[in-house]
Specification:
- The chain is an alpha/beta fold and 419 residues long.
- The protein has two domains: 56 residues, no CATH class; 292 residues, TIM Barrel (Alpha-Beta Barrel), CATH 3.20.20.
- Helix content is 32%, strand content 12%.
- It has 13 helices and eight strands.
- α3 packs parallel to α13.
Amino acid sequence: MERRRWWAGLALAGVLVITGVACRVEVYPDDTTPGSSATAQPVPALAESLTPTVTPTPRPTLTPIQPRLITPTPTRHWYQLYFPAVASSALESPLPTPEPEATPTPTPIPTPVWPEPLSAPGPSKLGLHVVRNNSPLIMEFIRRVRPAVVKAVDDVGWLGDVKLVSPETVTIGRLAPTHQDMNGDPAVAAQAFVAEQMARYQLNPGVDYWEGWNEPDPNEKMGWYAAFEAERARLMAQHGFRVAVGGFAAGVPEYDEFVAFIPAIEVAARYGGILTLHEYGAPTLDFAVGSALPGRPAYADRGILALRYRWWYRDFLVPRGLDIPLVISEAGIDGVLMAGQRPGPNGLGWQEFSDYWDHQGIVGGIEGYIRQLAWYDAELRQDEYVIGFSLFTAGAIGQWMTYDVTNYLPQLAFYVAGQ
């Protein structure tokens, strides 16, 4: 059978499928039909079939079958354009008119309620650690309550504004160093460190004290680190700057290691410097208070995490007349201390412990956290050498978001103002 053009076949196939008519076409040699008296001729051999004397039968001219086009309407489907017979009452029902999407009504952001501004700093020693000054709530908190201390990391220029609205607030700045390596000559390392950061020190006069390294854990190299910090204090004094030495992490150093750091405190005291430490607890801030350090007796008002500073002052610094001002430059709830290692990329901040507190019958949420901070604040007020503590953290970014207190600064302000 001769091949038809593809479009004609398509139209025919569609009609056959829709109408359900089945056709069987038989082909006979030389167009012989059934019942004809003509005798079928044998098929010639291959050589004979290629003889050029054979004249081919001309192909009939076929008129293309044009599909019936129907102007689409809302009640027509695409296949009805070509096969109108398939239309049914079910398909003739009008298409639903789409409902316009309702424009959501934005939820109004409540205006924060603040306490009346304090005319002078109050007795509370609660201050702020700020990763980035990325919210107007941060400066408003400072205007309202004039906190004891504010610490900023890298983003330090705005501390000049802090001094304008609250001159009594002690400001601490830290710039991230390119490395922290306890090798080589400690004096040479201190000189390189100060030279690397001096230009930024000079651009930021709003900083009262400059920290150096962040959370070092020198262990057997405590003597090296003490020499580094002592030289840094001397160099900074030559340029008119004051330092905060130490910067130790929570739970650091060990009791017998602290003795080797005393030479750095002696130099810092000579040049008007201070000591900074970090103190955290988990799952509550007072976790392990009353526990003893290895080889030492237990005291109800000292801890191995929070209130650890009392070991250094009461056993070493006060007896030597070296009780220089102290700032706990990071404080709060940090799950790394309970788990032994940070569980996942973000750690466990105070917000993640809120459900745990509820489970244990401890008030959760920001109210529960403020109660824990109030306990810590009351403890620090008993020691005159403590300037304050920087609550970690406001202006959080990245991995520090579960520690963030930015949206709760009005509640914190009411606590500070009420002391």
